[in-house]
Amino acid sequence: MAWRDAFAEQARACRSLGSPLTAQVCEALAEILAHDHGALAERIRNWPGDPSYRADSVPLRLCGALHALVLTGQTQGLAGAYKRSDASVLRKEISKAIQRHEQHILEWIEHAPQTNEVARSAVLIAGSWFLAALLPDCRFDLLELGASAGINLNFPFYNIEIKNNNFLYEYSDTVCLSPEWRGKQPLRAKLLIGSARGVDLHPLDPTRDGLRLLAYIWADQHERLQRMRAALAVAKRHPVRVDRDDAGHWLSRQLAEPCPHGRLVYHTVAAQYFPTSTRDQVEAALDIAGADTSADRPLAHLSMESDGGEGAALTLRLWTGGEMRRWSLGRADFHARWIDWQPEEI
Questions:
Q1: Is the dihedral of CA 286, 289, 292, 297 positive or negative?
Q2: DSSP string of 154-170?
Q3: At what angle do helices 87-100 and 58-71 cross, to 10 degrees?
Q4: pLDDT tens, residue by residue, 122-148
Q5: Coil, strand, or helix at residue 17?
Q6: pTM of the entire structure?
């Protein structure tokens, strides 16, 4: 059964990413839904699309719905179960929550999860340092694809603390990012930022949709929750603009507009969810705009995306004067718990 396979796969993924509680929740949900005859069980067992993490992420939709109940104090029993490691108690409390709040859960799962992982901004900060070292006097507008609520459009306002045996970098602000740093020492160089704008098919608003953004974070990953709360506070002080559109159509229009300085296009664990036609249009837009660049109007493309290897591949492309250069910057955990920084031109 595809839906049961989706829950089993998601449980394995959660354990590998450091969330044993969410793995247990997925396993409990699979057992409950297999034997329940309510509207929610029927909806899940007859899901019309691909319920796996590759497409509709149905298990994470349900996990988010339950976590929202916990965050809003509507299910004290489930909140207590989340603090214990007793699988039987967890299953019992999830069953109660489904019975009492089925309509809330049914409404919640109509929306795909949007994690908008704040920690990935550490990759963006390091990538911006690398770009600024290449072009120290150039200003860049930021264009983010698959931006969700635009939390990572605010990466210039975030802290980064990078430690290894030889160095420590710190900024002083409200969001603290502290990945395990592997590989080479990054060269810190401040990137000059102009405007910042993103796109998403279903953009969220950091003020209106703060609960949803928090609920999609796995309940036992407290540092992630703390970072998101801090990022939501930054978004109140520095509102971002995220347009509702297809990333390919949007980028084509953005890059067709004249710009007196550089532009940095980026995305983090988003391209895998784009249709092939969107990915093709993004590439075409970059190629066309890249051919029309100059030394004072460069185009950069920074990506953190799955390529089948460990974690995500970090890649930077830079067009100046119509010529394109490409670097592999290393790899990073999907939640940016670690970054292996190995910049090399390829």
A1: negative
A2: GGGGSEE-EESSS-EE-
A3: 80
A4: 999 999 999 999 999 999 999 999 999
A5: coil
A6: 0.88
